[in-house]
Amino acid sequence: MSNKENHVSMIITSPYRWETFDVFNPNAFPKSLNSNVNACGFRLGLWLYYTSFVSKEIFKERDVFVKELVSQQDGIRKSLSMRQDSLKFVAYSDGLQYMAATFGCLNAMKSFLDNYAQLMAKLISPSTTLSFKKKVINGRKIAGGALISWLQNSAPKTFKKAKDLADITKRHSSEWITQAVIYRDTLSHYKDIEGMIHMHVPLQPKDPPYNSANIELPKMPDGVPLIDYCQDILNRSTYYLRESIILLPNIERDMIKPERLFRRSNGILKI
Questions:
Q1: What's the pLDDT tens digit per position in 21-48?
Q2: Which terminal CB of the chain, N or C, has fewer other CB atoms within 10 Å?
Q3: Mean pLDDT over residues 201-217, rounded?
Q4: Are 218 and 195 in contact (CB under 8 A)?
Q5: Torsion sign over Cα 217, 218, 220, 225
Q6: What pLDDT does 268 receive?
Q7: What's the mean per-residue pLDDT of the chain?
Q8: What is the reported pLDDT for 253?
Q9: Which residues pair with 6 in a beta bridge?
Q10: How far apart are CA 140 and CA 158, in angstroms?
Q11: What residues make up the domain containing 41?
Q12: What is the distance between the alpha carbons of residues 230 and 212, in angstroms, rounded to a whole number?
């Protein structure tokens, strides 16, 4: 068959995308928004996928870290024994593998939020195009501020839930989204996340020069383990979706089940 011939496509859905269908089921939305709905579901699936890989990559990185320490332990021990000062020595991993998964997690999050903001706006006012970009709200620049401002000032008067949706978005942005977007912007555009503590282990001038039981796994600047942080923001997204999706117009309510999000197949990720 040539590429120009008509055909019927059968799409095999990834289990990660399948997990998002309880909210982003195209049949529940106007046909004109099919591409927006699929974009949201695909990006939420990507977010789920990358989050599920963070812990796997951390423990892979730990194995690589230990292997390198073993291969270099003679040199490490010799170098430490020659030191005359009392400074402590610590070996760090550069974290490339688990930071790659974290990079994917945070970028998928931001991409999802941008697409979800656009979907919400078009359900309320089909001619409106928005993203989850920052804007000053009540003296603070927060992620989703542009959406919040539009809901507060410019949304059609016929949409009676504008204030509720603005308040829900503002609360979630203030509690976790804005900080997550700051981490994403820093990691994507500028440098490593300031204050992040990478995988490390103290070194000592004896045999062996380290204790693998003392290897510390990576933590965010506030001390929260990276594994927990990435899962936490995904968990929080389910609450934002559950609270916001039920306020939106032009959705077939009986075709979505936001309370079941990520639980279609006993969940790929334990939420």
A1: 999 999 999 999 999 999 999 999 999 9
A2: N
A3: 89
A4: no
A5: negative
A6: 45
A7: 92
A8: 95
A9: none
A10: 28
A11: 15-260
A12: 25
- Residue 91's beta-bridge partner residues? 201
Number of structural domains found in the chain:
1
Cβ-contact 151, 165 below 8 angstroms: yes
Residue 210 near residue 202 (C-beta atoms within 8 A):
yes
Q: What's the Rg (C-alpha) of the chain? A: 23
> Does the CA dihedral 183-188-189-190 come out positive or negative?
positive
What's the whole-number mean pLDDT along residues 251-262? Answer: 93
CB atoms within 10 A of CB 99: 22
H-type helices in 72-200, by residue range?
73-81, 96-124, 145-153, 162-172, 178-185
Q: The whole model's pTM is what?
A: 0.90
The whole-number pLDDT of residue 134 equals 97
- Could you tell me if residue 1 is inside a domain? no
- Backbone phi and psi for residue 200, each to the nearest 5 degrees, phi listed first: -155, 165
Is the preceding omega at residue 208 within 30 degrees of 0, hence cis?
yes
Domain-located, residue 9: no
DSSP state of 192: S
On whether residue 5 sits in a domain, the answer given is no
- In this predicted structure, what is the pLDDT of residue 198? 97
Q: How far apart are the first and last CA of the chain?
A: 45
**Mean pLDDT value across residues 122-150:** 97
Q: What pLDDT band is residue 267 in, cutting at 50, 70 and 90?
A: very low
245 domain residue, yes or no: yes
